[in-house]
Fold this sequence. Notes:
By secondary structure, chain A is of the alpha/beta class. Chain A has 13 helices and eight strands. In chain B, about 35% of the residues lie in helices and about 20% in strands.
Amino acid sequence: MSTSKQSEAPVVHRPVFIDGSDLTTPTLKILRQDGSLYEGAELPDIDQTLALKIYDTFLFIRALDERMVAAQRQGRISFYMTEVGEEAADIGSTAALAHDDMIMAQYREQGALAFRGFPLQQFMNQMFSNEKDLGKGRQMPIHYGCRELNYMTISSPLGTQLPQAVGYAYGYKLEEKDNCVICYFGEGAASEGDFHAAINMAGVFKVPAIFFCRNNGYAISTPSSQQFAGDGIAPRAIAYGLKAIRVDGNDVLAVLKATQEARKLAVEHNQPVLIEAMTYRLGAHSTSDDPSGYRSKKEEEKWREKDPVLRFKNWLIQQGWWTEEQDQDVSDAKRKAVMAAMKEAEKVAAPHLDDLITDVYDTPPKHLQDQLAALKAHIRQYPDAYPKTAGRLDNE
Amino acid sequence: MSNMNLLQAVNNALDIAMDKDSKVVCFGEDVGHFGGVFRATSRLQEKYGKNRCFNTPLTEQGIIGFANGLASGGHKAIAEIQFADYIFPAFDQIVNEAAKFRYRSGNEFNVGGLTIRSPYGGGIHGGLYHSQSPEAYFTGTPGLKVVIPRNPYQAKGLLLASIRDDNPVIFFEPKRLYRASTGEVPEEDYELPIGKADIMQEGSDITVLGWGAQMEVLEKAVEMAAADGISCELIDLRTLMPWDVETVSRSVQKTGRLLISHEAPLSGGFAGEIAATIQDTSFLYLEAPIARVTGLDTPFPLAHDKEYMPDHLKNYEAIKRSVSF
Lengths: 396, 325
């Protein structure tokens, strides 16, 4: 009762090696930089409301990223990561999903979360690790998560979300839900074992999952030419039995279109899909990084000319859905709102010390309670050394 | 009651768990139609279908990553790692993901439904890679529970409790006893408590502590000591994290002596953790240094596995040394 697969490929009687030239991966482009459409381009399913929601999220993320890098430089937060230049990739793809499709992100996808409606104040609470942070102040800035919005909490280890996405999607399949999981990762993370494990399992189990690769050219300082020798990430998916598509990651209409089609394959046919979005990280990897050490200004300039936000704005204006005046007003309003929310979050107290031991397990076991009690006694002895918590202990 | 070996008890527990809760899903390498290389999942696919009991590709990191994702969506994911020796590709998914899932999200998400089953331990001529006892790699990771049963009755009750516990549990099964250990096991559903040690035999001269397959060895040693007039209190720790400090401390405060035995190497083994804690809770009661009888600080050997193992004779001698200290 073997169910082993038999290849239908022809048999040859002298050695024939195959290589990458036997496969060409096209790139989907719909929108030109000037806002016009390529000839024959098929538009995604988009109306004015959706278009403006996407663009509003673009402007919000630009304002947030710009302000929070400054805040890190001022020492107000410890760390930040921008997604400047990649907004079309995560926001455009999330816009193709149902609101209850699970998002399993890597870390540079705050736009996806913003699109889902995560409140500005919650972004700030997370970054300032205050007591209103859903994550209880436990993780570095930008490690967001929200059950209500179906956005799985970010973890720093690279690629771990990939096999998890397969498991989560398998759960959808078991329950026969009309949902899929989208899993974001970078071209660098695709070198991790978890990537290969995940894509293989997704193919075998035929789960409703979309693997969305942001191929932004660099893994911190390592260019993709030193990351892999093949033609990017998309062809790998085919070898594992998935469908794959490559899109211009700075073209939000192409990203939206590809993801809408991928979602149909995933949800209606349990066909996992990999989308490779070709884009560029215009900012540094993180606030701890300085790209001038590994790439040229000229290269950055070349990509700045392909700015996805500007490209989409041009289209919106041509549609008659947006004006430069609106653009200015909304951008200003977003900057002000971000500033106000930041100042608000700074004033909120740190999480209570008791939350140091909650959520390790469902309920704190005795040894953790003992350790907390000992710690509290110590803090009471040296209150000046622990100013964040000492004052609040006295109130108990 | 029916007579079962340890494998049958595990199989029976899985059967009950799957029967009672449609959210329970079992998977791993060769787990499906074949029923696992040890047959722990025999007939489960037949009974519950290919969607709920199935083979995975050969990728431990994938298996546990998949299990984390499935559990985070509210399913009870029971993942089998074919041998504990092969759990290490999944180390990141266990240590950085499963263990921290709830904490890092502020309980927005958790993988409380995850149970990892894996056969561990020596004594089957398995050499380096079919013999290891890697429990201490996991006891040092907050967020995980580590449970190890000693016989069929314990295996069934502890496994059912582990599956239903709302935390990720690593359940190491003593494979040497899979078929060697038999006993009366209730056919109905029952659970044994996680985090509670089991005093198997009361005594007054020395506390002898172990877990899993080591309990059978310790029973022999304790019997030999009894013939010499030494009264041993024999305790099966059952759960290594979080472990029952209270029961062990109370026992040591009564006997004044403690011997801890495990198959894993001495250095960094869990006996060291227990010894440190017990000298802290019970320093003034101790009448002899806490003894550790363990595997050697070598990889697990093949030709010399009998010499390597902390057998009943080594334990018997250590009991006598402690009592005559």
